[in-house]
Amino acid sequence: MEWASTIQFVCPPFANLHGERASNAFLLSRGNSMPIRVHVSQLSDEELLAKLGVKRRAKPRELERPHQVALIKWVRTVKDAHPVLKLLYAVPNGGDRNLRVARKLKAEGVLAGVADLCLPAARRGYHGLYLEMKSEEGVATKEQKEFLCGVSVEGYCAVTVQGVDEARETLEWYIGITDHEPPSVIKTNLICQSHTAGKQRERRKKKK
Fold first, then answer.
1. Do β-strands 89-90 and 117-119 pair in parallel, antiparallel, or remain unpaired?
2. Which of 31, 33, 62, 30 is nearest to 46 (CA)?
3. Strands of the sheet with 129-134, listed across from one edge
4. Given Cys at both, which of 20, 74, 112, 208 links 25, Cβ 3.0 to 4.6 Å?
5. In this structure, is the dihedral angle defined by the CA atoms of residues 92, 96, 101 and 102, taken in order, positive or negative?
6. Is 23 in contact with 40 (CB distance < 8 Å)?
7. 70-to-67, 105, 133, 153 alpha-carbon distances in Å
């Protein structure tokens, strides 16, 4: 393969980026060694974006994951004192999947919108607890709201929590460590009540 002479990108964010045939190749410098000529096909998407100075926006699940991991770490430190937490499990329903895998999972019964965590223990008049994990700025999708409101109608405590602190507060309240009902529980209940009322109005209109 023939390469054109090395050129200098002069417009930000390319001022310090050397490349050959900008659309086809880059020169990568590592320490004091000679630059290595690399074709774009050899770069991962992350490396290519980094070379172009483009910052990829994090997906919602990537922002939520650290909060869920932190919550599970806390659960594992207190589960001996509160054995019911040993029943808490995660639902691996999110993440990137190719079309073939997605079709297989759907055929097996994977359902969009299912909450991230479930505690199958009856407490405070509920059959069990479902937690939908979000980052501090995250919001539930339409499918997630549908699921949470659906299980709420069936007698489960369904809560959208923003961040590890809200999730921990909800778990502590649900299993009886604390008695103060968290705002996240009240907020989700109000959302589900409004959602259910809206569905009922739609059904009444269709009957007329």
1. antiparallel
2. 62
3. 89-90, 117-119, 129-134, 157-162
4. 20
5. positive
6. yes
7. 5, 27, 11, 30
Residue 140: DSSP 8-state: -
Identify the residue whose tokens are 């109608």: 153
Tens of pLDDT, residues 140-193:
999 999 999 999 999 999 999 999 999 999 999 999 999 999 999 999 999 998
In the predicted model, is pLDDT for residue 104 greater than 80? yes
From the list 52, 50, 24, 49, the residue with the least C-alpha distance to 38 is: 24
> Which domains are seen in the chain, by residue range?
7-51 (no CATH), 60-207 (3.40.1350.10)
In the chain, the amino acid numbered 206 is: K
Tokens representing 67 are: 């909060």
Read off φ and ψ for residue 69, nearest 5 degrees: -60, -45
